Amino acid sequence: AGMNGTAIENFACVIFNISFMNCTWHVGRTATEDTQYFLYWRPSKKEDVTECQNYIKDNCGRNIGCQFQNVTIENKNAYFLVNGSRSGQNIHISDYIIVEKLTPPLNITVNCTEASHRCSIWWQPPRTSHVKKSSCFKYEIVIENK
C-alpha cells in the first residue's frame, strides 16, 4: 500500500464564486524530492474521475495543489483521490470527501422604524453549485448598536 509517511497531509479544497475551486496539501513527512503527487476527483458518483489539469507546484517541482474552473457539484459530496510515486515506488494513497463552503447571503435589506424601535431584515440564500432548497440553510444574525 506504499511507504509510511509519504501520504499528503492537510488536504483542503475551497470552492468560491460558485465555479472555482482550489485544492492544496502538504507533502508527506518522509517524502523525498522525487516524490510526485496526482489529484483525481469526480463531482458525483455518476461522473467519471478526472485528473487535475492545472497543478500548483513547490520549489522542487512537486504537485502541492490544483486549481479547477467551471466546477459543478450535483449532490452534497465530491470525491477526491491523491496518489503518486517516488522513484517507481508507490506512495500511500489518501482519499477524501469534501463539501462546498458557502458564502454569506445575498441582497441583504434592512428596514428600521424609529417609532416602533423595530427592524425587518430580508436576504436571499447564497449562490451555490449544488444546494437547490433554500430550507437547507440556517442563518445567524448579529446586531450591533452603533
Automatic annotation (TrEMBL):
The keyword Glycoprotein applies. It is found in: Membrane. It is a single-pass type I membrane protein. The keyword Transit peptide does not apply. Keywords: Glycoprotein, Membrane, Receptor, Signal, Transmembrane, Transmembrane helix. The lineage of its organism: Eukaryota, Metazoa, Chordata, Craniata, Vertebrata. GO terms for molecular function: cytokine receptor activity. One of its GO terms (cellular component) is external side of plasma membrane. InterPro entries: FN3_sf (IPR036116), Ig-like_fold (IPR013783), Short_hematopoietin_rcpt_2_CS (IPR003532), TypeI_recpt_CBD (IPR015321). SUPFAM superfamilies: Fibronectin type III. It comes from Chaetops frenatus (Rufous rock-jumper). It comes from the Eukaryota. This is CSF2R factor. Its main location: membrane. PANTHER family: CYTOKINE RECEPTOR (PTHR23037), INTERLEUKIN 5 RECEPTOR SUBUNIT ALPHA (PTHR23037:SF46).
